[in-house]
Amino acid sequence: MKKIIVLAILILLAACGPREDTAVSTTPSTPHIQNISRAAAGTLYSTIDQLAANQPTGNQPAINLLIAANVIAWLGLLLFIWRTRRQLGVSRWAWQVAGGVLVMIVLATAVYLFTSLQNTPPTAPLESTTSLADRLAQAGAIPPLQLSAAANTEVELGRALFWDPILSGNKDIACVTCHHPNEGTGDGLPLPIGTGGQGLGPTRVLLPTARQILVPRNATPIYNLGLDGMDVLFWDGRVSVTPDGQFNSPANDDTPHNLANAIAVQAMFPVTSRDEMRGHSGDNDIFGERNSLGTIQDHQFTLMWEGLMADVLAVPAYQELFQAAYPSVPLDELTFAHAANALAAYQMDTFTFLDSPWDRYLQGDETALSPEALAGAELFYGEAGCASCHSGSLLSDMQFHNIGVPQIGPGKGNEAPLDFGRARETSSDSDLFAFRTPPLRNVAITGPWMHNGAYNSLEVVIRHHLNPQEAVANYDFGQLSPLVLAEDSGDTAVHTAALNAPSFGMPTRELTNAEIAALIAFLESLTSPTVLDLSHTIPDSVPSGLPVGGAIN
């Protein structure tokens, strides 16, 4: 028995001592026993090493599990030898030696497991081996398809209509007033000033006699409407194309059937909005005449469009332009749908550009991006998670998301001062405060950003995406104009409503200042150099003889 105890102690020392990859010093009397121990436990050590390399420091449940598995395995082997000792012809002395060895191995490996896993340093996370090309493929980031251009005559008609305030009830505002090429095809304001205003861009103001309130949503830029897939429009998506090619619109069954595309459908509606272009009952136009469009009921879309076409076709120069654009259509059969098709043709032709550094990169020019912009692209399509929504060739999934934007401004509709966003169209709680993911080409020059212009810098926009709760809690109301502040509720419950809706579920993320700067560099690489000077698109005059662009001077 004494021999067994001695053997057990020596085996325990051998099993718990340094392993073969460490320099050891053994006495002449123990090498044979050490060899036996290591032969029995060598495979186990190798397995333990692999497991330990993947375990974080102090992972006690994993340690306990491995120790229990080790004990059960060795005791099972011991029980097997005990039950088969006579069949195996094992003598009593040999059985005692074997039993002692196995017991010591159980103890030794348990000690080894505990100390090895406890002392294993945490393994650094593996670097992602996914290349930017792979990530782009996963996000569907391919060069977009530009649709075929319309006939020049249709584009010219659209240009005249786009710049002419004849399409407004008070004859004081044109489409371009809120979508000016010198203002990033927007107006540079958080919320637009529609009819009743004067001036252009951030200098635009409401006239003292105006009864107008602010348009409740930010003027979306009109860049790249000529790209395939631009078929969900307005912040709430109230204009869209169905899978079978039909159009959804606020006019429902009154939507004309001869509209060319979703851009044309969209062009049918700003002229019907009291806040934007139509005006109100009792308004007088710039000539002192009664605004006849303002007296029409809000649901009578066909009457509004007929009234507009009567004004337009009363101008001889427009008769010529329409006949040139649509030579097979008699004048008395022209409708506002033809005007909308021309407006769409002009916007799609004039403001679609695919010459940004990012577009050149997608087209194969690997030198198009700066190192910082390239690092930003890696973040955008990787760790930052931007491409989960800003995906595809348009940098938008054309879906609707509640990202917790602070509810500032007058709000929209019956729920004012709130703006329910997509839920106004679907009546679904899952769409509360959800707005369309905006396409991002030229985003760096189209601020203020968000559906209500809540943020005036890209850095703040990014920080909001990283932690919406913190961004809303620290929102700087000093960045808002006096007009917006005057129409804001001032109610914290309103400002934070989107964060508390069932539709909100954005995770928080962390990025360093350098990573945020890289993301901004990438977003700036989406800017076409051509858009920086579009002064050549401004006409000298419009067919009606009214001021070009409306009351913008």
Task: Please provide a written account of the structure.
The chain is mostly helical and 553 residues long. It has three domains: 2-118, no CATH class; 135-144 and 355-532, Cytochrome c-like domain (Cytochrome Bc1 Complex, Chain D, domain 2), CATH 1.10.760; 152-353, Cytochrome Bc1 Complex, Chain D, domain 2 (Orthogonal Bundle), CATH 1.10.760. The protein is 39% helix and 3% strand. It has 20 helices and seven strands. The strands form three sheets. A three-stranded antiparallel beta sheet has the order 3-4-5. It starts with a helix and ends in a 29-residue tail after the last helix. Mean pLDDT is 85; it is low at 1-59 and 120-128.
Topology:
Elements: H1 2-16, H2 31-53, H3 60-83, H4 85-88, H5 92-118, H6 132-138, H7 152-163, E1 197-198, E2 205-206, E3 232-233, E4 239-241, E5 247-248, H8 262-267, H9 274-278, H10 301-313, H11 316-325, H12 336-350, H13 357-362, H14 371-380, E6 400-401, H15 423-426, E7 435-436, H16 458-466, H17 468-473, H18 482-487, H19 492-495, H20 513-524
Antiparallel strand pairs: 1-2, 3-4, 4-5, 6-7
Helix pairs in contact: 1-2, 1-5, 2-5, 3-5, 7-11, 7-12, 14-20, 16-20
